[in-house]
Amino acid sequence: MTRPPPAPAAPGSASARPILLASYASFVLIGWSGLFVPTLLRLLQDEFDRSDAEFGLVYLVGALMFAAGALSSGIVAGRVGRRVVLPAGGLLIAAGAALEGIAPTWAPFVLGAALAGAGCGAIDAVASSIVMDLSEAGSGSGLNRLHLFYSVGALAAPLAIGGLVGLGVGWRLLAIATAVAAALLAGPLARAGAVRPRGRSPDAVRAERTPALSVRLRIALATLGLAIACYVAAESGVSSWLVGFLADEPLTAATLALGLFWGGLAAGRLVASRVADRFEPLRFTTSCALAGGLAVLLAVTVASGPARIALFLAAGFAFGPVYPMIMAVAGSLFPHRAAAVAGIITAAGVAGSVTYPPLMGVVAAVAGLGAGMVGASALIVAGGAAVVAAGRLAAGRVARREARPVAAADAP
């Protein structure tokens, strides 16, 4: 006799709660890991006697491995299951952080950063796909809540690491502690990875058998990849160069502006986690992108002093929902392939972080950082336009609610 399928796991149900908590903890971890080396930059330069350019190589390797981890995790998860891939991401971060902590020379340290980057990419993509499967197709609230915890980790890292180092705690001990935390998280992540991928609805099956619509959906997904690359380019460009752009302000004011930008990101995602599903996802995402671009443009061209800092706070608030909303829109195109879609979109975003911040340095040498900030404003607006184009290509599919998820082991 055929056993009935398990009951659906609603996002607020008791069965979904530990899965979501593990996913949130994993995003705190990758937010922390992403800011670990930048926070310790001066100490690490002294430790290994390396230049800014050589640490630029660390950032490049980490970003490329993040993209590789995100893209490959979606493919591998489709074959062996997310309950294998997700904890493997945590163990990669643990191995990378441990290697950084014990590295006697430069080469092992760079290898550790590469391993940690690959693990962060895998967790970013797979945990996002799990939350997508626990939410209705096109729902942005769950993903905004998940990415809020990335912002929490990114905010906590410089505050906690800077404070502990100031108290005399060695950076290597902090790296080992990060490794231990990542290893301990592997067990909960394995249980979270057991969420069954969303079932294929009859409409989805018919869409895949209709060549013209199938091609349009794939082009729409590629367009959303462009949109998220534009967004990440703008966000990382502003974040990387904001302190330098505010060179005419006291250092305390410039660093405050950077902290407020990230605080705005966190607040934007918190608010969106409560209200995003009340609005049509394409319009909400595009409105946030336009508002963020306008705030950056005004901060560069009109405002000065406290008003400029306030505008960067407003820009962060508007930026916050854009990334998770693009991810949610992409997931609605192929709701039964959340892991693969999340991997593709996450990897596409890395292209923006790899290309635009270095390009801003070149632009600054020619026309000043103000021109680079205007470019960031244009990029996030272009990302919003790409979201609109993707919606038209998808012919309304992003607004359709698909099958509810089931909390059970991955299908073999």
Which terms would index this structure?
two-stranded antiparallel sheet, 15 helices, globular, 2 domains, disordered C terminus, mainly alpha, Growth Hormone, Chain: A, disordered N terminus, 412 residues
Biggest sheet, spatial arrangement of strands: 1-2
Assembly of the depicted chains = single chain
Fraction of helical residues: over 70%
Helical run tally: 15
Helix vs. strand class: mainly alpha
Distance between the termini: 20 Å
Largest sheet: 2 strands, antiparallel
Query: Mean pLDDT, rounded to whole units?
Result: 84
Total discrete domains: 2
Main CATH class of the largest domain:
Mainly Alpha
The coarse overall form would be globular
The total count of strands amounts to 2
Would you spell out the secondary-structure blueprint of this structure?
Layout: H1 17-39, H2 41-48, H3 52-80, H4 82-102, H5 106-133, H6 141-166, H7 171-192, E1 195-196, H8 202-208, H9 211-245, H10 251-275, H11 281-301, H12 306-319, H13 322-333, H14 338-367, H15 369-394, E2 406-407
Antiparallel strand pairs: 1-2
Helix pairs in contact: 1-5, 1-6, 1-7, 3-4, 3-5, 3-14, 4-5, 4-7, 5-14, 6-10, 6-13, 9-10, 9-13, 9-14, 9-15, 10-12, 11-12, 11-13, 11-15, 14-15
